[in-house]
Amino acid sequence: MTRLPPPANKKLGLVIDLDTCVGCHACAVACKEWNDGGAFGPLPDDDPYGAEPHGVWFNRVHSYEVTGPGTRDPAPAAPKLPDPSASGRRASAVQSRESCTAEAPVPGPRSPVPQMVHFPRSCLHCETPDCVTVCPTGASYKRAEDGIVLVDEDKCIGCQLCAWACPYGAREIALPPAKPRASDAGHKDSKRGTMQKCTLCVDRIYNETLDERDRQPACVLACPTRARMFGDLGDPESTVSKVVAERGGYALMPEFGYRPVNRYLPPRPRREGAHAAAAVEAPTEAILDTERLPPLLRWLDKALSR
Amino acid sequence: MRPALPVILFTVLSGAGYGLWCLLGIALAAGIYPLPGAGILVPLGFGFVLVSAGLVASTAHLGRPGRAWRALSQWSTSWLSREGIASLVTYLPMLAVGWLAHSGHAGWSLRAAGACLALGALATVVCTANIYRSLKTVRAWRLPQVLPLYLAFAVLSGGLWLWAWLALASARSVTLAFPLGLLALAVIAAVAKTAYWRSIDCTPPLSAGDATGLRHLGQVRGFEGPASEESYLTHEMAFVLARKHSRRLRKAAVILFADLPVVGIAVVLPYDAAWIAPLLAILCLAGLFMERWLFFAEARHAVAAYFPQRRS
User: What's B243's domain CATH number?
Assistant: First the structure.
């Protein structure tokens, strides 16, 4: 049924740390790999080895450049920044060129070096999502017991209204291949023409054939910087809830009223002058004052310098 | 949004069919329809062709058309489901009107069937508009003009066909109020659509800062998308093709669905040139086809904010 279940206490979801994510796409690849072979697979691709590969991913990693005062530590020390006027000119030129699309400039001093923020994007398993209620068939549903939003692929008619209703781009349809290949002939193609989305690895997290520490979403296990955490965000005592409270984890675009369960941890402010300090340190290393070294090292330096 | 041909065909053709049925039903219910028997069956049948062609076209938009029947189950929450039910239920009064007209019945039974036909047709168009209106992700479709415009375009395009039939079949017996009403409706629709276009031009799109929740840190600029190739999302939601031609297309659409019908009606009435009437109905449909293409192509989906801005 596409009626939403009554609010549950258990809200399984992910916490994604934008501070430590390095944008390696390992989560996206691990997700694709598991879900291609897992209970919800296959995730068919069009032209996978050709010029324009095209297919469904449940998880995609974007990269953004953030320029502004908010990316720096509000330290009282005067910033030692190389030629701020040049970068200011460049920034304003960029802005005027993109005046139709760019957002309003943030007042205050501008950081000359933009901070990269890598941003994994997947289903947020919202508490009150329209992707469930707009579904005409009941294929799109939210589980009452743990809040996971799933698609019943045996019911989905592929009208794509749920994907239209999602502002987070969580849903992608597996369309029939544009150019069917001979090798597809005997392939199990039951998933063609139906909507696909993140299952929160529901076939892993409850899977008793797996080792207990492996009962986590594939993306969480794959992350080399542990920027992804899985847990019950409905329980204020859970590890994920505590880290959200501590780091000020936030929900994406709350104005839509879908009440996402997943939380993003904001990037920590960068230390003031970190770049300038690095620039100054590099040459001092080259000009080594040998006279100030202990005698043994001074002799070694002489011997090695010959 | 990507303008999908099946959806455009459905909303334009079925819209015209339901508008035609609606006016025919109202005229029958009010007892002011001038022709009996075949005079009812011809526009009723033509409406059936328009409605059914649109409905069949709409199934081409589905990934699994064979399962379309499942869409009738979730009427409690889904406007698409309600639309499916309304569209099928409306066939019942259509059959009733057809049978009554064929067997020469008149009086209260035909009036009641006509009223049901008009209500069913209206309800279906309301459901269609609400499918789009209910999507919070597309700001343009949340505008207050969307529902009235869907109704106005359905009645206008269907009304032109009904008037064309009446003008060809019995030019003298048609009340003058009908074409004049259509003329007024065309003007109102053009004004409302222009207001809609002005509103969407003034609505700023969501930015990457809004989408990522990082706006408070500074200016957020898309550096790299998630894939080197197009994906379903960029293809379907971040549709930018030919938006730069939208000004010309807007003008052409208004000329076809409003200006030419208004001038045409003004010419047909005094000079009794009934043959122009069906031409106007066809031009109006062509204009609405452009209008509907723009309705999708110009609508920006929230998810586009995640992707690096591309030139339109």
Answer: 1.20.1630.10
Q: Is B81 on the interface with A (CB under 8 A)?
A: yes
Residue B289 in contact with residue B5, Cβ under 8 Å?
no
- What pLDDT digit, counting tens, does each position of B95-108 carry? 999 999 999 888 89
Cβ atoms of A119 and A18 within 8 Å: the answer is: yes
Q: Structure pTM?
A: 0.84
Contact (CB<8Å) A165/B135: yes
**Strand duo A12-17 + A263-265: pairing:** parallel
- What integer pLDDT is reported at residue A102 of this predicted model? 42
Q: Which of B91, B101, B98, B172 has the alpha carbon at shortest distance from B124?
A: B91
Q: In which residue ranges of chain A is CATH 3.30.70.20 found?
A: 12-65+119-265
Q: Tell me the chain B residues in contact with residue A219 when contact means C-beta distances shorter than 8 Å.
A: none
Residue with tokens 């062509």: B286
ipTM: 0.92
Our CA-based measurement puts residue B194 at a distance from the nearest CA of chain A, in whole angstroms, of 21
Q: Which of A65, A137, A255 to mutate to test the interface with B (most CBs of B within 10 A)?
A: A137
Task: Give the pLDDT confidence of B8-63 residue by residue, as tens digits.
Answer: 999 999 999 999 999 999 999 999 998 888 999 999 999 999 999 999 999 999 98
Sheet (strand A115-121) strand order: A115-121, A60-67, B219-224
Taking domain A12-65+119-265, whether its CATH number is 3.30.70.20 is answered by yes
Cβ under 8 Å to B: A residues 197-236: none
Cα–Cα distance between B307 and B310 in angstroms, integer?
8
The answer to whether the bond into A44 is cis (omega within 30° of 0) is no
Burial degree of B154 (CB within 10 A; 0-12, 13-18, 19+): buried
Put simply, the answer to whether A52 touches B229 (Cβ < 8 Å) is yes
Chain B residues with beta carbon closer than 8 angstroms to that of A164: 1, 135, 137-138, 237, 301
Question: Up-side HSE of residue A109: CA atoms within 13 Å toward CB?
Answer: 15
Whether B232 sits inside 8 A of A134 (CB atoms) is: no
